[in-house]
Amino acid sequence: MPLREDFPPAGTAYLGGESDGYEYRTVFGGSRLEATFAMVRQFLAEEGYSDIPLPADVSELLLFRLPTRNKQILLFEDNGYVHNPVKILFPSDRRKRSTLILCLYNEADPQHLLKFHRVLERQLPGQQG
Questions:
Q1: How is the chain split into domains, by residue range?
Q2: DSSP one-letter code for 7
Q3: Contact 54, 83 (CB under 8 A)
């Protein structure tokens, strides 16, 4: 069964990646970024995410890369393409030019949107702190 329909439970290793029950994270690395992106696209299609819009090619994907070398900014921003429930991120180590990090999120989680968009760290409307 595809990952999207049967999300791996916490502590599970699945096809080279790991799941905490909410986020599945894996790393792809090819000889060139084009090959790596092709692997990511194929994986997404096989795991039930073929309906998620993706950049057409590596040129488009690179438009989502943050132009900063300031690692503090990267603590608050995703460095890559983000479209719920998928994130295709560039590693913080710029020497890994042909590597991509794929993160998939469990849409069945009751607070999925809040977690995906990282708003749980902030105070929700109507809450007092």
A1: 12-123
A2: P
A3: yes
Three-class SS state of 72 = coil
Which token pair is 95?
């020497």
Tokens of 79: 């460095």
Please report the pLDDT score of residue 45 as a whole number.
98
Q: b/e map of 12-26 (b: 16 or more CB within 10 Å)? A: eebeebebeebbbeb
Q: Tens digits of per-residue pLDDT, 79-114?
A: 999 999 999 999 987 778 899 999 999 999 999 999
Residue 115: count of CB within 10 angstroms of its CB: 16
Q: Name residue 90's amino acid.
A: F
Distance CA 59, CA 73 (A): 23
What pLDDT sits at residue 118? 84
- Mean residue pLDDT of the chain comes to 88
* Interatomic CA distance for residues 80 and 89, integer angstroms: 4
End-to-end Cα distance, the chain: 43
